[in-house]
C-alpha cells in the first residue's frame, strides 16, 4: 500500500509540473517576460523548500548540496546586473571575489528541466536554426535567449574544456547580447609554460571583469577563495574510502547537485563547509554492503524508472561520479593559493575532462579504486561527442582492472530524447550481472584458508 501511495504521489507531482510547464509554453512566444517571471518564482519556491522542508530521507550534507545547487542559479537570476554567463569547467573564484554571480549554462538547463519546462526552450532553439543533434543543455540556454526569457548579460566567459558546443554557443550569445566575451584557451598537456599561458589569460580576464563591472578585484580575497578551493578538493578525496561501506543515500539527482555546487561555488565558505559535512556524514552513516556504482558524465535525474532502481536503494548505490572529481588531484598541487592565477590555471589544465580521453579514463580508474566500485555506467549524453568518443577508452581502462562498464545512451537534459524503459532494463540487467559476479568471488576468509 505504501508503495502505491508513493507512486500515486509521484504521478501527481509530475502531472502538476507538466500542467505548469504547458501554461508557460502557451505564453512563452508572446510574453517571454511572464515565462521568465514564473520560472524564477518556481526556483525561489524550490529554494525555500530546501531550507524549510528539506528531504529528511537524505543526509544533512545532501540537503545542503541541494540548496547550494539551486541557489547558484536562483541567486544569479535575482541579480541580473551582476551575472557572468559561464561554463561548468571555468574556475569561478575570480567572479566570487568580485561579488559576481556565475551562471553556468549546465546548471540553468538542469533546473529548467527539473521544472519540466525544457521542451519549450529546446523548440525555440531548433526554430532558430540550432540542429536537433546539438547538446540539449546548450539548446535550453540558446532557446531561452532566442525567446527572450533569458535576459542579456553584461559579460560572458568560458574555456575550451571539454565541450565543443561552448565555442559556438557563447560566441553566438555574445553577439546577440552585444557584451564582452572572453574565451580561455586551455592546452591539453600540463607544463609550467602552459600553466603560465593559462594564468596570463585568467589574469587578463580579471582585468576585463573590473572594467566591465566597474569594481576592483581584491587580490587577498582571491587568494582566500583559491585556498578554500584546494582545501575543499582535498576533503572530497578524503571522502572516497568512506563511501563504499556506508549507505550515503545517493541518487542521480543528488550527484548532479553535488557536481553543480562543487563547480559553481567552489572557493566559497558554503562549499568548503559542504565538503566537511560530507566527511562527517559518511563517517557516521549506516553500514552498507550493496553494489557500489561509479557514474561517468551527466545523469538523467528526471527518469522515474532509473530513480526507482538507483535512488536511496540499499541494494545498489551511486558511490561517486567523475563530474564531482574532475578537478581533484591525487598528488600535491605544484602551485599554492598565494599564486592564485597559476593555481587556478594548473587545476584547469589538469582537469580530467581536458586533453585526451585517456586522462579521463585514468581519473575514473583512480576514483573507482579508492571507492571500491563494482562497476561503472558511462552515460553518453545526446550531442556530447566528447563522451561518446571517450566511452570505449574508459571501458577498456576499467575492465582491465576487473570493473565492468555499461555504456548507456540517452539525454541528461531533454526527457523527450530519453528512452526510460529501455535504459532501466539495461541498467537492471547490468546490476544483475554485477551481483552474480560478486556472488562468485570468494570472501576474504576463504582466500586466507
UniProtKB/TrEMBL annotation:
Superkingdom, taxonomy of origin: Bacteria
Alphabetical list of Gene3D superfamilies matching this protein: 3.40.50.11890, 3.40.50.11900
InterPro entries: FldB/FldC_alpha/beta
Family: Belongs to the FldB/FldC dehydratase alpha/beta subunit family.
Protein name: 2-hydroxyacyl-CoA dehydratase family protein
Organism from which the protein derives: Kribbibacterium absianum
